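User: Can you recover a sequence for this backbone? Please restate the input before giving your answer.

Assistant: Of course. Working from this structure:
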């Protein structure tokens, strides 16, 4: 991530900062609430996405997690994700409640991995000539605490990656982002090792992968 959903279930989503996200705020009952729709983002969604991202940045800072504190992700980065067709949102009755990026090229930050390794598919696991997809820049609106949207977002993105022909999905988060680490494990990811983000003053990330 890399770009963040982390901390979804408590205050926001930080670390699906995906990378990182926060869900602090008003509580909404899940009863009679329709399942949000995952769809590709358009430029019309950019303002709402940046509002969610900026809120997640503030929450990460308040929690002492030095992720997303160097100006990234910013409007130019998210706009580029949208132009590539890699940016996604969760849409709940016309309201954007979460955003993320499904990176569809090999991530150069993952070329070297330390204290572990990227594993190959086990017997019976599907393989693909497309390589892997990576979940980055994930976050959930602080106004929707209690709907477990962090888990919904990860599950939907994994499904979308499979629909696009990927059979491996990767993700990373900061070592201090315990809530994101919990969400990642809950989604079925396995720990792979440590990677480092280029041009980040706090570059270390824990990385994970799943085969689908």
């Amino acid at each position: 991530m890399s770009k963040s959903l982390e901390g979804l279930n408590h205050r926001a989503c930080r670390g699906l900062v995906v990378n990182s996200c926060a869900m602090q705020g008003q509580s909404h009952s899940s009863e009679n609430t329709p399942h949000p729709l995952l769809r590709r983002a358009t430029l019309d969604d950019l303002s709402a996405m940046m509002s969610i991202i900026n809120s997640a940045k503030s929450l990460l800072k308040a929690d002492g997690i030095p992720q997303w504190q160097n100006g990234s992700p910013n409007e130019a980065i998210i706009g580029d994700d949208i132009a590539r067709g890699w940016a996604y949102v969760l849409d709940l009755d016309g309201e954007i409640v979460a955003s993320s990026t499904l990176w569809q090229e090999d991530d150069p930050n993952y070329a070297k991995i330390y204290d572990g390794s990227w594993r190959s598919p086990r017997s019976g696991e599907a393989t693909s000539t497309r390589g892997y997809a990576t979940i980055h820049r994930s976050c959930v609106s602080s106004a929707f605490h209690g709907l477990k949207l962090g888990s919904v977002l990860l599950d939907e993105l994994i499904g979308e990656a499979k629909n696009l022909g990927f059979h491996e999905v990767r993700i990373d988060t900061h070592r201090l982002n315990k809530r994101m680490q919990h969400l990642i494990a809950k989604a079925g990811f396995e720990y792979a090792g440590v990677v480092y983000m280029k041009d980040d003053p706090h570059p270390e990330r824990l990385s994970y992968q799943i085969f689908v």
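That completes the design. The first helix runs from residue 46 to 62.
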